[in-house]
Amino acid sequence: MLRSKNKPQNTENLEQKTYPNKQALLNQIFCCKLAEFLEVPCLDYNLTKIKTDKKTVLGTVNKDIKTSPKFRECRSLVPYASNTVVDIMKHLKERGYSFAVDEMELSLFKIALFDYLTCQTSRFDHCFGFLTNGSKIVVAPLYDNEYSFGLTYDNILNIQDPSFYSNDKNYMKVLNIPARFSVYNSARDMIITNAEHWNEAMELVKYATSKPVVKDYLVSVLNKNYSNFFNNLNLSEIPREWLEVYKNCIMSKLKFIKQATSTKEHEQHY
User: Fold this and answer.
1) Per-residue DSSP letter, 76
2) Alpha-carbon Rg of the chain, whole angstroms?
3) Cβ contacts of 46 within 8 Å, gap of 6 or more
4) Smallest Cα–Cα separation from 14: which of 57, 56, 59?
5) Rounded-to-integer distance, Cα 19 and Cα 21, Å
6) Sign of the C-alpha dihedral, residues 155, 160, 162, 166?
7) Does the domain formed by 66-269 have CATH 1.10.1070.20?
8) Helices 212-222 and 101-117 meet at what angle, rounded to 10?
9) Do 21 and 156 meet the contact criterion of CB atoms below 8 Å apart?
10) Closest listed residue to residue 73, CA positions, set 178, 14, 143
11) Contact, 23 vs 223, CB < 8 A?
């Protein structure tokens, strides 16, 4: 059985959620563990059995942050077209909110990098938000990570079992839609080539090198021991071949980031 610590003990303000297929469920659980490893605040999702009208299915339970009076979805504060880190901070300031600039830049960058590494396809303006305390505002913990690793509303019926990933051609097809360097993306249906992966990595690195606190975080991500992370995962519900897909995707994205970092350092040197 898949184990997860800190399981909520009471039933107040909890969200119970079922998923359209098993990959969406396991994406949610895996991303929760990956976020913890990468020091990205994320809601703690736990597996649970949920009774529906017809049967009992496996789903998740977590603290429902959206029921908090302090929570505000991004779309309630920021126009949809304004999806870059700079744009978001500009609109928050215009609404009278105050925040530590370095902290906000780092928090939003963490989301962008996390979504890039996991091929998030659904970080729209209602899939992340903020916590407010009077005029003060901070980024809320992440939630809704099920549509990652290439899973989209369009292809969800095509991925029902792990054998789908055994073919390299299918594997590349399903991982062709990463998030743009914005905190939410609207390019879900765009076909992404290796060159575009490279361009996104360069955008991330370019932004990080201009912000010392962000650059330090990116360096820490690149230096983490991912082999230990995957070897020590206690996720018995996730088939080994799926974990390999997660690992291959993340490591390939990290390779782009490392190459982009080397290129950027080379450019600065000259």
Assistant:
1) G
2) 19
3) 4, 7, 8, 60, 61, 62
4) 59
5) 5
6) negative
7) yes
8) 30
9) yes
10) 143
11) no
Q: Are 13 and 66 in contact (CB under 8 A)?
A: no
- Token digits for 244? 């390999």
For residue 216 the two structure tokens come to: 């330090």
Q: Are 17 and 66 in contact (CB under 8 A)?
A: no
Residue of 178, 149, 185 whose CA lies nearest to 27: 149
- Residue ranges matching CATH 1.10.1070.20 in the chain: 66-269
Tell me the C-alpha distance between 211 and 161, whole Å.
42
Look-up of token digits 């996720």:
235
**pLDDT (0 to 100) of residue 100:** 97
Q: Tell me the helices (H) and strands (E) count for the chain, helix number first.
A: 8, 6
Per-residue pLDDT in tens (0 to 9) along the chain, 270 residues: 344 444 444 556 788 998 877 878 888 999 999 999 999 999 999 888 998 888 898 899 998 898 899 999 988 998 876 667 888 899 999 999 999 999 999 999 999 899 888 878 777 777 889 999 999 999 999 998 988 876 765 554 444 444 443 443 333 343 333 333 333 333 333 334 456 667 778 888 988 999 999 999 999 999 999 999 999 888 877 777 778 878 888 888 898 899 999 987 756 643
> What is the number of other CB atoms lying within 10 angstroms of the CB of residue 28?
23
Using CA atoms, how far apart are residues 188 and 88, in angstroms rounded to an integer?
A: 20
Tell me the two tokens of residue 79. Answer: 């126009």
Instruction: Give the pLDDT confidence score for residue 224 in this predicted structure.
Output: 97
Which is nearest to 142 in space by CA: 112, 121, 111, 119? Answer: 111
Helix (H, G, I), strand (E, B) or coil at 140: coil
